[in-house]
Design a protein that fits this description.
single chain, mainly alpha, about 75% helix
Length: about 150
């Protein structure tokens, strides 16, 4: 009876181990989340959200655009959690911050808008390697901060 009980215990332990191993988080490819299948898909999703929110904002539908921006923020956080996000992910994150900043600026929330533009300054000031596009984005963010600063005293 003890032998049978021990065998059953071993089988139960093997089953439990197999189930628990199957529940483990998926391993990263070489420890780099940007190499995983979900990463470029999430970048594309965020870029699509940006395009939709931008179109809504331009049509004056700020509430709908804000809802999309809020949806995009969780994707943005996930993408930027990578130790070295891709340029495409940084651009999509930057576009989301820029749109949100412009929405805040249009609503005269100058301090909050400045915060989002400052995120882009930090992002593009330290991006390596610098390109014409990253320089353009840095210049744009600096110009938007200057616009906020012109209005903050109002």
């Amino acid at each position: 009876m003890d032998g049978l009980r021990l065998t059953r215990l071993r089988i139960a332990a093997i089953i439990a181990f197999t189930v628990l191993a199957g529940c483990a988080a998926p391993s990263r490819v070489d420890g780099d989340p940007t190499k995983e299948r979900w990463y470029p898909e999430a970048v594309q999703q965020l870029a699509a959200i940006n395009r939709q929110a931008e179109a809504l904002f331009e049509k004056g539908e700020s509430d709908k655009a804000a809802a999309l921006i809020q949806q995009g923020q969780s994707l943005q956080s996930r993408l930027l959690a990578a130790p070295r996000p891709t340029l495409e992910a940084a651009e999509a994150a930057s576009d989301l911050d820029d749109l949100y900043g412009r929405m805040l600026l249009s609503n005269r929330h100058y301090g909050w808008a400045r915060l989002f533009f400052q995120k882009n300054v930090a992002r593009w000031k330290h991006w390596n390697p610098q390109t014409a596009e990253t320089k353009k984005r840095l210049d744009q963010a600096n110009a938007e901060i200057a616009e906020c600063d012109r209005h903050i005293g109002e």
